[in-house]
Amino acid sequence: MTEKRLRILVVDDEPQIRKLLKVSLGAHGYEFDEATTGADGVVRAATFKPDLIIIDLGLPDMDGKDVVKAIRDWSQTPIIVLTVRDQEQEKIDALDAGADDYVTKPFSMGELMARMRVSLRRAASSETEPVLSCGDLVIDLVGRRVSVGGREIKLTPTEYELIKVLAQHRGRVLTHKQLLKAVWGSTYVEDTHYIRVYIGQLRRKIEENPAQPRYIITESGVGYRLMCHN
After folding, report:
1. Which end of the chain has less Cβ packing within 10 Å, N or C?
2. Type and span of the H or E element at 17
């Protein structure tokens, strides 16, 4: 019995981008479908039933963020958005709208494929695992314990909640607003200084070299990502 090929839907109005992705993804064994407008992208997402969707934010008929929102109304399929490098607020808005990750144009296929693998792996794994492993970093959700290299780390309740949220979405960038809402609640979504303080404290406890973190990575101006080194 042949293994099911994973399906990728690309929503982008640039023919050269679609051609590049069609050839590259096909060479990696993915099944490919495409749409050139946001409206068609929403329809194709429903009919093609992709395992992952790649959406350009600059579409001719509607904003890519609105496509993300429309799909999120009925689907939790992983979504990666394509943005131009200087659109920091666009990245934040797309992630807050429900995108899982972003890749900046011009992008390398290696970077895009890595982001895709992380998103697909996360979608396939259960979010209710009792123990979350990220390289040497282990978070025991039942015992509320955190260890690095077998050594237990003493965390405050807030530090624990922050590392737990990052670990539950490991590999994915979380915006300041998403982290604040998850850890402190919706009344704190503008208080980004909380995040900086607690991330600094976590790094001092978890990272071998807090100035050059391996686990908690800053996505400049956007948020943070927990990277696993398995």
Report:
1. N
2. helix 15-27
Q: Report long-range pairs for 204-208 (Cβ below 8 Å, ≥24 apart).
A: 205/153, 205/154, 205/155, 205/159, 206/137, 206/146, 206/148, 206/153, 206/163
Phi and psi for 57 in degrees, rounded to 5? Answer: -75, -25
Average pLDDT over residues 144-168: 94
Q: Is CATH 3.30.365.10 the classification given to domain 131-226?
A: no
Nearest Cα to Cα of residue 48 among 66, 60, 33, 35: 33
Instruction: Report how far residue 63's alpha carbon sits from residue 179's, in angstroms, rounded to the nearest whole number.
Output: 25
**Token pair of 181 as six digits:** 């809402």
pTM for this entry: 0.86
Mean pLDDT estimate for the chain: 91
Does 15 sit behind a cis peptide bond, omega within 30 degrees of 0 on the bond before it? no
Q: Which residues, other chains included, contact 125 with Cβ-Cβ below 8 Å and sequence gap of 6+?
A: none
pLDDT band at 2 (very low <50, low <70, confident <90, very high): very low
Q: Domain 7-124 - what CATH class?
A: alpha beta
Structure tokens at 88: 């920091």
Domains of the chain by residue range: 7-124, 131-226
**Per-residue confidence band for 1, with pLDDT thresholds at 50, 70 and 90:** very low
